[in-house]
Amino acid sequence: MDILTIFPHHRPMPSTLRILVLASIALACKKDAEDDSASDSSNPPTSTAGPETETFGETEPDLSTGSTDPDMTETTGTGSTSGDTTDADTGTTDKTTDDTSSEPMCNNGIVEGDEECDDMMVSFNGPCIPGCLNNICGDGHLHIGVEVCDEGEHNGVYGSQCGFDCTEDTAEFCGDEVVQEEYEDCEPGDIHDDYHVDCVGCLWAGFRVVFVTSIPFDGAMNTEGLSNDGKSGLARADLHCQQLADTQDLSGTFRAWLSDNNGGDSSSAASRIGGVEMEYRMPNGGLIAPSWSYLLANGPLEPITYTEEGKQLNETPVRVWSNTNGQGESLGSDDCAGWTDNGPMTGGRVGITVEGEQWTDANDARLCNGSHRYYCFQGED
User: Fold this and answer.
1) By CB distance 3.0 to 4.6 Å, which of 10, 142, 202, 354 could disulfide with 184?
2) What CATH topology corresponds to 211-267+304-379?
3) How far apart are CA 148 and CA 125, in angstroms?
């Protein structure tokens, strides 16, 4: 449109006014074009690009974002979205999950669930042990800097060097310089006051006790002050040995060095005593023999003259009932009718409290109504 048409009779306009008029005309033309475009969109478009492209209900993706028509998004019956979702602005995909719970994790620095501790420094020697449990005395894990020791269920048990409080001060063991009477006889370095033997493994070095009875008995093994408990013969003699040992708290089982002529295992002194290969000592500590076999082969190293009380007989030597040879077997000689007769018409074979073979067999018999002592040996239980 020519400006002269609009203004047929005009004067020359100033330049500024001319510019404003031209701008108004341009805006009016642009509005007319937009109105024409809107009215044309209501009419079906006519394709001029060749054959029509057949579609099957699929929505063409927006090539600029890669997303599909939101009307075609698959939904579940509950209205919750399943699968992956794509951000339309960024094109990134987020994973979705229905499980929003979280399990406690040990060593993440947070005390959760059943955890007792969590310092992110879990170790077997720290305050927090694996499993996020407190390191306490008795769990078997040494808490460095807090516990001196920790042997778990063995804490405080005799022989363990760790006490109930996880210190060594309260531990009870061989070598702690305290005699635990339930388990020990002595501590290393001790020497027995009565037997002069060393302490080995918190027990007195292996030995057996031998004594001569402090009181005499007739041929039927009767004496004043001791009960017979319905026993007779060798059984009564063994009972009296034990009764005398018990009065002095001598441990073990004691039996008489006596034999009868009835035959059988119980008839000989050796079979009833059951000698073992260790030292034999008197209650004063005097060494009788370094071993059982030495005693049988050589007799005692010194006369057996100390009683169960640890006292030496006032007069020595004395005769002792025996009927037993050096090997601990029956002599098959006089035995006061199996040590049951105390009459004046029977006799019993005796030994003498000396060294050598006569200690058990003096080749002599004495009337059974007389009174004599006899030897007692600590034997097997």
Assistant:
1) 202
2) Mannose-Binding Protein A; Chain A (3.10.100)
3) 12
